[in-house]
Specification:
The protein is α/β, with parallel strands linked by helices. It is built from 12 helices and 24 strands. Belongs to the EPSP synthase family. MurA subfamily.
């Protein structure tokens, strides 16, 4: 089991290149099911979750060649979408097979998806959308089965803003008869990225990035080339790491607009953030002040950066209040921060953080993907050595994190045992 050993107290300095966006890449891979054709996906992050989906697609019959983040996928030989082994249980995004498989084959079976244990993550909005399009959905002994003789476009109002449901319904609807309208749709950048991919395949989608998306069904789709957008969560993590270590880090290959929420909070804390066309430079200091944070759907503060930001706030002067409005289980990792000397009180979805002068290195355990990143940040700014156990969580979403941090001057070592 992978562990990370971190020697704290080193000021990060230099440049870091951001990989393709995990949350945009994960729907792209199943989306290639929609047409039996050849695709080229560029800037795919070589992270464990993406490679797990690649393995699932290979088992379905796809021919896939991965080389340095550029992936060639040929789905010509896939004749059905049945993924019933334990691979689907390793990640949440395996549920995108439902929308893609339903869209192409009008029938799909997958084992129930897995993912991080960060609270309730129902798929009821996905099911609601599929059923509205005319599909029959059954869940029996951990197997999800969706089938339809025909998919008919309709208007679907999402009861809650859901990225996964928005993308899954888009994929199922692209070859449905007539027009589908998704109301109260999610607006995250990876919704737009998935829409761009589908349109490049021949779909007719308008409104992605707004709360109303219109999909006019087409008779067939084809292969294409697609470049995955930069990972805003990885970028935000390195921005926070620079601030946490009083560093000076330029985060490159990004879209600054996607980072406006984290940029605003860092500036509110007194951190200097300089924006360029495709980079941000973050210069930390020892006078960071407390802030309050509330996670919200995009363009609000992202839940995936709440945990790394909570680590940073443990050394900010004053009292910070963090409210988690997306996933109620995001504060499990705070017990690990307390081992390092953090002063945090959690009451259901709210954490009250009293800033301390410094954290101390300790043996801690990553409870999920973003919690792992948060503990890495805590280790970077702590005195002494920190050992992050169960670091496999981190590699589900961060490509070469120890190599990138080492390039910035950090003392980080990955131990495989």
């Amino acid at each position: 089991m992978a562990r990370l050993l971190i020697q704290g107290g080193v000021r990060l300095n230099g440049e870091v290149e951001i990989s393709g966006f995990k949350n945009a890449a994960l729907p792209v891979i199943p989306a290639t099911l929609l047409a039996g054709d050849k695709y080229r996906i560029e800037n795919l992050p070589l992270i464990d979750d993406a490679m797990c989906l690649v393995d699932i697609m290979k088992e379905l019959g796809a021919d896939i060649d991965v080389k340095d983040g550029d992936v060639n996928i040929d789905t010509t030989n896939i004749k059905e979408c049945r993924a019933l082994n334990d691979l689907t249980g390793k990640l949440r995004a395996s549920y995108y097979l439902l929308g893609a498989g339903l869209g192409r084959f009008k029938k799909v079976e997958i084992a129930y998806p897995g993912g991080c244990d960060i609270g309730s993550r129902p798929i009821d909005q996905h099911i609601k959308g599929f059923e509205a399009l005319g599909a029959k959905v059954e869940i029996d002994h951990g197997i999800i089965r969706c089938s339809a003789e025909r998919l008919i476009g309709t208007t679907i109002y999402l009861d809650v803003v859901s990225v996964g449901a928005t993308i899954n319904i888009m994929m199922a609807a692209v070859m449905a008869e007539g027009t589908t309208i998704i109301e109260n749709a999610a607006k995250e950048p990876h919704i737009v990225d998935t829409s761009n991919l589908l349109n490049a395949m021949g779909a007719d989608i308008k409104g992605a990035g707004t709360d109303v998306i219109k999909i006019t069904g087409v008779k067939e789709l084809h292969g294409c080339t697609h470049n995955v957008i930069p990972d805003q969560i990885e970028a935000g993590t390195y921005m926070i790491a620079s601030a946490a270590t009083k560093g000076d880090v330029t985060v490159k290959n990004i879209i600054p607009k996607h980072l406006e929420a984290i940029t605003a909070k860092l500036r509110e804390m007194g951190v200097e953030v300089i924006e360029g066309g495709d980079f941000v430079r973050v210069i930390g200091n020892d006078k960071m002040s407390c802030v309050n944070i509330k996670t919200l759907p995009y363009p609000g503060f992202p839940t995936d950066l709440q945990q790394p930001m909570t680590s940073l706030l443990t050394i900010a002067k004053g009292t910070s209040i963090v409210t988690e409005d997306i996933f109620e289980g995001r504060f499990k990792f705070t017990d690990e921060l307390k081992k390092m000397g953090a002063n945090i009180r959690v009451d259901e979805r709210t954490a009250v953080i009293e800033g301390v002068d410094t954290l101390s290195g300790a043996i801690v355990k990553a409870t999920d993907l973003r919690a792992g990143a948060a503990l890495v940040i805590a280790g970077l700014m702590a005195e002494g050595e920190t050992e992050v156990q169960d670091a496999y969580h981190i590699y589900r979403g961060y490509e070469d994190i120890e190599k990138k941090l080492t390039k910035l001057g950090a003392k980080v070592e990955r131990i495989e045992k």
